[in-house]
Amino acid sequence: MGSLYDLHRAVGSYFRLYERDVSSSLRLTRNPDLKTISGFCTKPQVSLKAPSYTSSCRAPGSGFKKEDEIPETVSFEMLDAAKNKMWGKISFVMIALTAAGCISMIVEGKKAKERNESLTSLTLEKKALLREAAAMAAKTE
User: Fold this and answer.
1) Membrane-spanning regions, if any (predicted)?
2) What pTM value is reported for the model?
3) pLDDT tens for residues 111-122?
């Protein structure tokens, strides 16, 4: 039993050493220019300039007038705020269009009532025309 325990310890220490060697080699090959920031989207680097932090005081979801005003990193909260603002505007437009459609249908219905047009009268007229056509067809045969 002692030899199995020793084998287990030896294998464990080998893997710990291997893991340490792999992580140190990864640190050496990692590119220091890459930006990895958790929770942020990064803007592609066009030129090397000092990041401007003046626009970070803006309210979330506010628009930027010039390309220079766009911050180097944009948080997901700011993106969510902009998306929510857009969906809010779209929902208000849809509400307005629905209300306009309802009002136009009410106006058209009142105009049709003044002309004495209803679904019942239209159906009766259509059936009368079909009966006349059937009677004409029966006479010609």
Assistant:
1) 86-107
2) 0.43
3) 998 998 888 988
Distance of CA 3 to the CA centre of its chain: 61
Give the integer Cα–Cα distance in Å for 69 and 64: 6
Query: Which two tokens mark 70?
Result: 């766009």
Distances (CA, A) of 68 to 11, 17, 22, 34, 83: 56, 49, 41, 22, 22
For the stretch 69-89, pLDDT in tens is: 888 888 889 889 989 999 999
Dihedral over alpha carbons 108, 113, 115, 120 (to 10 degrees)? 110
Give the number of other CB atoms < 10 A from CB of residue 81: 15
Q: With beta carbons less than 8 A apart as the criterion, state whether 38 and 75 touch.
A: no
3 state DSSP class of 64: coil
Give the strand pairing for 73-75 and 40-42.
Answer: antiparallel
- Cα atoms found within 13 Å of the Cα of residue 81, Cβ hemisphere only: 11
Q: DSSP state, 30?
A: S
Strands (E), 5-56: 40-42
Which structure tokens are listed for 104?
Answer: 């136009």
